[in-house]
Amino acid sequence: MRRRGARFERGISEEYLAVLAENYARFFYHYAAAPVLIVNSENLNFVARESDFELLVERMLGMKSRREFFNLAP
Q1: What global pTM score does this model have?
Q2: 1: three-class secondary structure by DSSP
């Protein structure tokens, strides 16, 4: 969010974002209505590198189980 610098996001606190992330994690931990791909995006940049986005789509389309993890090592 800092990198984007969008004016409407400037007032969003880090505390709020931490609570939001925790709630998403809790929700998807129990979610079973559809397959879930859990992505560690630390080493991915879907905006700047089209190849990262294509890799994500490839992983999504190639899912073989209801819950999978995608972690691209540096």
Answers
A1: 0.70
A2: coil
